[in-house]
Amino acid sequence: MAKPTGKTYKLVALDVDGTIRSKEHPISDRTRRAIAQVVEAGAVVTLATGRSYRSAVKQSQEVGVTAPIVSFQGAHLADPATEEVFWHQPLTEALTREALDAMRAWSGDVMAYYGHEVYVNKMTPWIEAYGGRNEVVINEVGDLTKVAEMEPTRLVAVGDPEEVEKLESQLQGIFDSALHVTRSLPQFCEVLHPRSGKDKALEQLCKPLGIGREKVVAFGNGYNDVDMLRWAGLSVAIGGAVPQALAAADRTAPPVEQDGVAQVLEELLAQGMFR
């Protein structure tokens, strides 16, 4: 093994979809082994995903991650074993109403996430299929403003990628920093509390551990990973990532099909860079 360099890392943050797995390529044994070796070396490994908390827990179990995990685009940080919540930034009632009002003309589906369930204006074939794929209860409420007083964790507008991109730009122009507006998948525009974001949730995870951002390695591939990649001490974009993620990263790993995350972790392990 190579001798340790002066630079070492204490925490690894992994996006999930498009980073350690895809529809065609499930999480590999090589990736699991690399994660286990990083933990054995003394570093913390966590997930930082746009998935809901329950969905993120399933992924953490699949890769053997036991540290608190970041879900809902950084609006939620919780222990996957005990379900203790350390950080939760739901939308306020006022912000929910303002966001829904701004999306009033949106012709696609809109979902509101509260707890472990999803609320929609009306049930559509896509929404029904989404509930089935994700094993989530879908509640049809007729008017989503009824959900505002519940203070949902996030709103998601679904539609054609080109139209979703326009909606994202429109909402960012209206709200600026008053809301956190991002895209996870090209067809999803997500609206969250302004204090949410993967980078902000990771800060909350690192503080009690005494880990500075310069000691964090972050992997991602999407629009919603850009802030996290800019924030981390070492940021790695996965091959095939969106241009914004590639521009924000310090380096690029091979694509998920080639176990890019595992390759980089193995390289860092060989250099003694986890302690």
Explain this structure to me?
With 275 residues, the chain is α/β, with parallel strands linked by helices. It folds into 2 domains: 152 residues, HAD superfamily/HAD-like (Rossmann fold, 3-Layer(aba) Sandwich), CATH 3.40.50; 100 residues, Hypothetical Protein, Haloacid Dehalogenase-like Hydrolase, Chain: A, domain 2 (2-Layer Sandwich). Helix content is 34%, strand content 21%. The protein has a 6-stranded mixed β-sheet, sandwiched between helices. Strand 10 and strand 11 form a beta hairpin. Helix 1 runs parallel beside helix 9. The radius of gyration is 18 Å and the shape is globular.
Give the strand tally.
14
Poorly predicted segments: 1-5
Average predicted local confidence, pLDDT: 95
Distance between the termini: 14 Å
Largest sheet: 6 strands, mixed
Strand order, largest beta sheet: 8-7-6-9-11-10
What count of helical segments does DSSP give?
9
- How many domains, as an integer? 2
Q: Supply Rg.
A: 18 Å
Keywords:
single chain; 275 residues; alpha/beta; Rossmann fold; Hypothetical Protein, Haloacid Dehalogenase-like Hydrolase, Chain: A, domain 2; 9 helices; 34% helix; disordered N terminus
